[in-house]
Amino acid sequence: MYEGAVQDLIDELGRLPGVGPKSAQRIAFHLLAADPVDVRRLVDALTEVKARVQFCTVCGNVSQEEHCRVCRDPRRSNEVICVVEEPKDVVAIERTREFRGKYHVLGGAINPIDNVGPDDLRISELMSRLADGTVTEVILATDPNVEGEATSTYLARLLVPMGLRVTRLASGLPVGGDLEYADEVTLGRAFEGRRQISA
Amino acid sequence: MSLYRDEAVVLRAQKLGEADRIVTLLTRHHGKVRAVGKGVRRTSSRFGSRLEPFMLIDVQLYTGRSLDVVTQVETLGSFAQVIGRDYGLYTAGAAMLETADRLVEAEHEPSVQQFVLLASALRSLAGREHAAGLVLDAYLLRALAVAGWAPSFIDCARCGAEGPHRSFAVGSGGAVCSACRPPGAASPAPETLVLLAALLSGTWEVADASDERHRREGNGLVAAFLQFHLERGLRSLRMVERV
Q1: Could you tell me whether strands A165-168 and B3-16 are parallel, antiparallel, or unpaired per DSSP bridges?
Q2: How far A149 CA sits from the closest chain B CA (Å)?
Q3: Number of cross-chain residue pairs from A and B with Cβ atoms under 8 Å apart
Q4: Which of A22, A197, B13, B152 sits CB 3.0–4.6 Å from B157 for a disulfide?
Q5: What does the alpha-carbon distance between residue A35 and residue B206 come to, in Å, rounded to a whole number?
Q6: What residues of B are in contact with residue A113 (Cβ under 8 Å)?
Q7: Has domain B109-239 been given CATH number 1.10.3720.10?
Q8: pTM
Q9: Which domains does chain A have, with CATH numbers?
């Protein structure tokens, strides 16, 4: 145990995800030894993020204004919505530069064991966005794990009867890998989602 | 470093750090085991897809200080694929996994019967052999029986008087005769008790032929029985979608 402020800092850092007691202690002593200007920059960044960053009222992505950068962009299509679990998934898809539609962040995936049901996600907000008929396609880009799959299944059941085109991101072989190293579940999915090649 | 190998059902998977996952396994010979799957959340992981809830696997682990570490995994039953694509199966399956997690409390204590029961129930669920709600209720009743809380649906649970009886008291252990009937005991339809007895004994031709009304009443009694013995309700049970 250290004295007052040092121990408080270690305790607070230790509450961060993925930071254990040893890492918390290392970061605390790094901060103690760091230049006060660098520490001030960190403090300002933390204060700023809590004071200014909010969730976009339309899509649920993180934003510094009422509407996020994607929702404000008039060049993006309003006809396609890509549904993701977390704001970090938006960043991952944006890196592909393939998608020019809008997003909808659910805030997680249905997981009954962790007490997360459909009512805990932003599903009603998604349904409200679809009510005016502008959207023609919904891309379900939840994680390719069992919770993400079940969430997509639940959403598809709501969306397909509305006459929308509902698509799910393809699962399969990672680019640059060798076929022999693929596991049977991934390879099975790749077979399932194979596409025809036209000459 | 001590290595061991076992068959297991993945009960839970929680994110850990950048790309790792803590998995809770119900193994055949080592009971409940909590282990780390390193790097399994990366798309390049060779066994990330095998460490998903509902998967039946052949796993090799080495004993760590607090958590064991997964080193190799082979698939024995890929139930997650089918279950994840059917919301009704998913919610029923989640209730089974949570029940197994709660009933097998101690880690590294063999629980062969609970393992076999869960693996068979998931196989039946994924194979759509019977209605998902019936498979769930049969599993819950048998898992409770294996844990030492076998309900009685025919003879009186208190005095053993030969049944069938009209009353059902969760706290007394099932069906009760008119002399043993405590105040507040339920009076389910006789067919409901026949259905529950069939689910407990595995008489599927009786269970499959049962009426929707009796199935609904039966799952209410099973849920009450489970809650009474686990002392705290199952979170996933309230989300089970019963068609």
Answers
A1: unpaired
A2: 5
A3: 74
A4: B152
A5: 76
A6: 12, 53, 94, 97-98, 101, 235-236
A7: no
A8: 0.87
A9: 4-52 (1.10.8.420), 76-196 (3.40.1360.10)
